[in-house]
UniProtKB/TrEMBL annotation:
Its EC number is 1.2.1.27. Keywords: NAD, Oxidoreductase. Residues 18-482 form the Aldehyde dehydrogenase domain. It is an enzyme of class 1 (oxidoreductase). This is methylmalonate-semialdehyde dehydrogenase (CoA acylating). The keyword GTP-binding does not apply. It comes from the Bacteria. One of its GO terms (molecular function) is methylmalonate-semialdehyde dehydrogenase (acylating, NAD) activity. Pfam families: Aldedh (PF00171). GO terms for biological process: L-valine catabolic process; thymine catabolic process. InterPro entries: Ald_DH/histidinol_DH, Ald_DH_C, Ald_DH_CS_CYS, Ald_DH_N, Aldehyde_DH_dom, MeMal-semiAld_DH. Gene3D superfamilies: Aldehyde Dehydrogenase, Chain A, domain 1 (3.40.605.10), Aldehyde Dehydrogenase, Chain A, domain 2 (3.40.309.10). It comes from Desulfofustis glycolicus DSM 9705.
Length: 519
């Protein structure tokens, strides 16, 4: 695997240059697989954060005036640079974020696909023209960039969230300030190097590290146009309120509690393969991870046995070990929180049939943050572990009466991110797609993540703001419609106001009417 060569400590990237922040608190960055400190990230000062805003603002006007073909050339170059450094980027993600390196490779490949989608921006930026509003008058809709945007990423997808925000924003002509998570900042250190390598103009993308004080400088700032977030629902709600006060456009993705519904005709092998990937991939730390498995009575006992057996076979260990399936959770605090939820599940009467606490791991990883696959069965919808987002490999299995029962459970959830059904029945399929009260549904898949050409995002408490990420939604969020009403006249000077000379004469007998729209 590639050797990681990174700035240490982590630096900000402002106006095309690396800047080491001094005189501020430095937060340790750990390798969750070993518990070893590998770097430190600055809690950047307000002064430096404002410098990034000024940089992006100064870069905006020349960037938006650059031809769309030249902006696309930069996106193509960045795409190729990511491909050229694919393995190095995957190893970086597997080191500080600690999803297994095979999943990290998948994340890098997905961002390449998103860049390819963003390169279709010229076709989607085309405006519209309406001819014949009146004689010699037409109306035009022109899609324009808005200005400077800021984006906040969570720890669990440092690459994916970068790709959801940055290529769409700058491809449409905006400039950007990106704040990575303090827990997984190393991916963006390499991306900053790639910005320099492809010659991205200074200030078009700035990278600023820190805590919530960074977006705090954006909400009221006159030079900022909008804010993006992928994070928790409480954080998204606070940011939505702040963006509302400041008049900023917002695209905010929050938490989730996703259900896998298993009907009596589900194919067992298909379900188990997808169950493992959905519930235990990335150690359950993703917004589309399966959290509740709802099974009809006819197959409940046999499928619970299959889930337990599958969970026991999962090998846990270092995220860089090719023989491992599941790596650690992100931090000691996350491990402690997940284990507290396990205790709550036991106290509330759910049946713990697979206990992931204190898993068997290699000696070299004894200081890592590991929680193994955990399964509760006999869970009811009112229990805490069935209602709150745990963000770890803890699964609640419920026995449901029928399709209507699971649809009611989904409707009662405050979250509305994703839900999947396993069935061969077309009626079940159509009803589930129509009635599941979520933003994304899946059929016989465990993770209903849309392809980059389609929008990604939930509803209810899982999504706040104006648009979803990626696809046409991503482009619409970063652009605004300008409407032009245009009257033209012949160069000969024979133009007569109104539809024609004769029509104008005929109207003289009628009372004059002045319209508020073009005539």
């Amino acid at each position: 695997m590639s050797e990681i060569k990174l700035n240490n400590p982590v630096k900000n990237f402002i106006h095309g240059e690396w800047m080491e922040e001094t005189g501020v608190e430095m937060v340790p960055v750990y390798n969750p697989s070993t518990g070893e400190q590998i770097s430190a990230v600055p809690l950047t000062s307000e002064k430096t954060s404002l410098e990034a805003v000024d940089s992006a603002y100064s870069a905006y006007d020349p960037w938006r005036k650059l031809s769309v073909a030249k902006r696309m050339a930069y996106l193509y170059d960045l795409r190729q640079a990511i491909i050229d450094h694919e393995e190095e980027l995957a190893v970086i993600i597997a080191t500080d974020q600690a999803k297994h390196v095979s999943e990290a490779r998948g994340e890098v490949r997905r961002i390449v696909e998103i860049f390819e989608m963003a390169c279709t921006i010229p076709a989607l930026l085309q405006g519209e023209t309406l001819h014949g509003i009146s004689t010699n008058i037409s109306g035009r809709i022109i899609k324009e960039p808005l200005g400077v945007f800021g984006g906040v990423a969570p720890f669990n997808f440092p690459a994916l969230v970068f790709a959801w925000f940055v290529p769409f924003a700058i491809g449409a002509g905006n400039t950007f300030i990106f704040k990575p998570s303090t827990q997984s900042p190393l991916f963006m250190q390499k991306i900053g190097e790639l910005f320099q390598a492809v010659g991205l103009p200074k200030g078009v993308v700035n990278i600023v590290h820190g805590n919530r004080s960074i977006p705090g400088t954006w909400y009221e700032h006159q030079k900022m146009s909008g804010v993006c977030l992928v994070g928790s629902t409480p954080t998204a709600k606070k940011m939505a309120e702040a963006c509302g006060r400041g008049g900023k456009r917002s695209m905010l993705l929050g938490g989730a509690k996703n259900i896998l519904a298993v009907m009596e005709d589900a194919q067992a092998d298909v379900f188990i393969d997808n169950f493992i990937h959905s519930c235990f991939g990335s150690a359950g730390q993703r917004c589309l991870a399966g959290s509740i498995v709802a099974v009809v009575p006819e197959i409940y006992d046999s499928f619970v046995e299959k889930m337990i057996a599958a969970g026991k076979k999962i090998k846990i260990g270092d995220a860089l070990d090719p023989d491992v399936y599941m790596g650690p959770v992100i931090s000691a605090q996350a491990k402690k929180k997940i284990e507290q939820y396990i205790e709550i599940g036991i106290k509330e009467g759910s049946n713990l049939v697979l206990d992931g606490r204190n898993p068997d791991i290699p000696a070299k990883n004894k200081n890592g943050y590991f929680v193994g696959p955990t399964i509760f069965e006999g869970v009811t919808p009112c229990r805490t572990i069935a209602k709150e987002e745990i963000f770890g490999p803890v699964i609640s299995v419920m026995k449901i009466r029928d399709l209507d029962d699971v649809l009611e459970i989904i409707r009662a959830q405050p979250f509305g991110n994703g839900a999947c059904i396993f069935t061969q029945n077309q009626y079940y399929t159509d009803q589930f797609i129509a009635e599941a009260n979520v933003g994304m549904v899946g059929v016989n898949v465990g993770i209903c993540a849309p392809h980059p050409y389609l929008p990604f995002g939930g509803i209810k408490d899982s999504h706040l703001g104006t648009n979803k990420v990626q696809g046409k939604d991503g482009i619409d969020f970063f652009t605004q419609n300008k409407v032009a009403t245009v009257r033209v006249a012949p160069p000969s000077g024979t133009y007569v106001a109104g539809e024609s000379a004769s029509a104008s004469t005929e109207k003289k007998a009628s009372p004059a009417v002045r319209s508020c729209v073009a005539q």
